Amino acid sequence: MTEEGAGIPVRAAFLDGADDWRDGVRAAAGLLVELGTADQRYVDACVSSVEEHGPYIVLTPGVALAHAQAETGTTTEGLAALRLTRPVTFGHPTNDPVDVVLAFSSGGSHMEMIKAMGKALTGGLADRLRGADDVDEAEQLLAEAVGHG
């Protein structure tokens, strides 16, 4: 969903599974590359961030929010969601396994996107994504989460 004037572009994908958490993060952040809001450097930085800092991106049970420094390969805001039929393990002590991997690019408004995602997750976004019938519905949910639905 990338219509002109529609606000922050969003993309969703449903996969049976990923080989590991790195594959899941790459797939989710790769959706941002498809949107044109980030490049491959950002995908790599999202993986490196978890390798360096641990599974801090696993925010709630079953949900990870992949992101990296805004200046590393992002051009503008974008939001993506990957729903996995077979969850992956990040090594988080309480919130593994993960079946929803969100990724965002901020283009400079990093903290605002984190706040928006926190609010959306508190409002039940992850469960609604899990219940979405198709990618179009999931993308509508993402658009609503960032106030453009």
Q: Which percent range fits the helix content?
A: 40-55%
Tell me, what's the shape? globular
Count of individual helical segments? 5
Instruction: Calculate the terminal CA-CA distance, rounded to whole Å.
Output: 11 Å
What share of residues are in beta strands? 15-25%
Give the H and E element order. Answer: EHHEEEEHHH
Instruction: Report the oligomer.
Output: single chain
Largest sheet: 5 strands, mixed
Tell me the layout of helices and strands.
Layout: E1 10-17, H1 21-35, H2 40-53, E2 58-60, E3 63-66, E4 78-88, E5 98-105, H3 110-122, H4 125-131, H5 135-145
Parallel strand pairs: 1-4, 3-5
Antiparallel strand pairs: 2-3, 4-5
Helix pairs in contact: 1-2
What does this structure look like?
The chain is an alpha/beta fold and 149 residues long. The protein is built from 5 helices and 5 strands; from the N terminus they run E-H-H-E-E-E-E-H-H-H. It has helices at 21-35, 40-53, 110-122, 125-131, 135-145, and strands at residues 10-17, 58-60, 63-66, 78-88, 98-105. The chain has a 5-stranded mixed beta sheet. The longest helix is centred in the first third of the chain and has 15 residues, at 21-35. The radius of gyration is 14 Å and the shape is globular.
Question: Which key features would you list for this structure?
Answer:
149 residues; alpha/beta; 5-stranded mixed beta sheet; 5 strands; 40% helix; 23% strand; disordered N terminus
